[in-house]
Write a structure and sequence with these properties.
The protein is of the alpha+beta class and 305 residues long. It has a four-stranded antiparallel sheet. Helix 7 (164-206) packs antiparallel against helix 9 (221-256) and helix 9 packs antiparallel against helix 11. Helices cover 69% and strands 8% of the residues. The protein is elongated, with a radius of gyration of 32 Å. Belongs to the ABC-4 integral membrane protein family. FtsX subfamily. Its main location: membrane.
Length: 305
């Protein structure tokens, strides 16, 4: 096959259907930008989970005198020294526990004043109204239920709380947004495929005379189809390159500069450039293969060779 002929046919086809080629490039660029963005969003959520789940604690709150009067879980009275020692001993024996720290009523009162000192309620609180607690860091944050089963309802224990539950609501929202982006991406991919098929169909129809002559002189089916497939692949590749540019520019201006979220939101561990760069080859490969395959199957119907 003469490469010069194929390249010339690609150029002719792209020029003849310039408007539709532009539409293919835009639709492929948007759909693959959403595709890459959804992959990066998943990486970001996983990074945040790893960062925050490693810091969350399970808290065992102990009964105080006030709880003994108002809370059914503390009906047997405030926690005793023997009960506290037994809880600590049992925690130390558990294989899922990494570290255990004790917070006294005075420590809890001090921490409350530091965080909510401006609240009107802070002035009316006294240390004896605060709860003692054990703060447990787990080796695996998913093992919270092991602690809850062992200590919830025990004498002297007011409640067992898992900070991970608070984060789960946030991550659930982020995952929901990510799935919404994937749904839009899927819709855009369908639109892009329909445009590619229609563009190939129009291109094949406009050059039916040339393909008829080529068929008469004995050209093979692949030789006739190759320029059309290459046109779709080139248009898709251009769209994929634009999508990669979108992702790089978005990462640069949203996280590093411009909005500079990495500086303004220090509590969030943002994904690095390595996560972005590893997605670019996948996007480029998809932008090349998807249009080429769509054109190949479209030609089997619209170009009889």
């Amino acid at each position: 096959m003469r490469a010069q002929f194929v390249l010339s046919e690609i150029g002719v086809g792209l020029r003849r259907n310039l408007t539709m080629t532009f539409a293919v490039i835009v639709s492929v660029a948007l759909s693959l930008a959403l595709f890459g963005g959804s992959l990066l969003m998943s990486d970001q959520v996983n990074t945040m989970k790893g960062y925050w789940y490693d810091k969350v604690n399970v808290s065992i709150f102990l009964c105080n005198k006030s709880d003994a009067e108002s809370d059914p879980n503390c009906a047997k009275g405030a926690v005793t020294d023997d009960q506290k020692k037994q809880i600590k001993t049992d925690l130390d024996k558990m294989s899922v526990v990494d570290t255990v720290s004790y917070e006294s009523q005075d420590d809890a009162y001090k921490h409350y004043k530091e965080q909510f000192g401006d609240s009107p309620l802070a002035a009316s609180l006294t240390p004896d109204q605060m709860q003692e607690s054990y703060r447990i860091k787990l080796k695996d944050p998913e093992k919270y239920q092991v602690i809850a089963t062992a200590f919830d309802g025990r004498d002297g224990v007011q409640s067992v709380q898992d900070q991970k539950g608070i984060l789960d609501n946030l991550f659930g929202l982020l995952n929901g947004m990510n799935w919404a982006a994937r749904a839009v991406m899927a819709l855009m991919l369908v639109v892009a495929l329909m445009l590619i098929v229609n563009t190939v169909r129009v291109s094949a129809f406009s050059r039916r005379r040339e393909t008829g002559i080529m068929r008469l002189v004995g050209a093979s089916g692949f030789y006739i189809q190759a320029p059309f497939i290459a046109e779709a692949a080139v248009a898709g590749l251009i769209g994929g390159t634009v999508a990669c540019g979108f992702l790089v520019v978005a990462r640069y201006f949203i996280i590093d500069h411009g909005l500079a979220l990495s500086e303004k939101l220090n509590l969030i561990n943002f994904i690095g450039w390595d996560a972005v760069l590893t997605k670019l080859p996948l996007i480029l490969a998809t932008s090349l293969l998807m249009p080429a395959l769509a054109a190949f199957f479209a030609l089997r119907k619209y170009l009889k060779v």
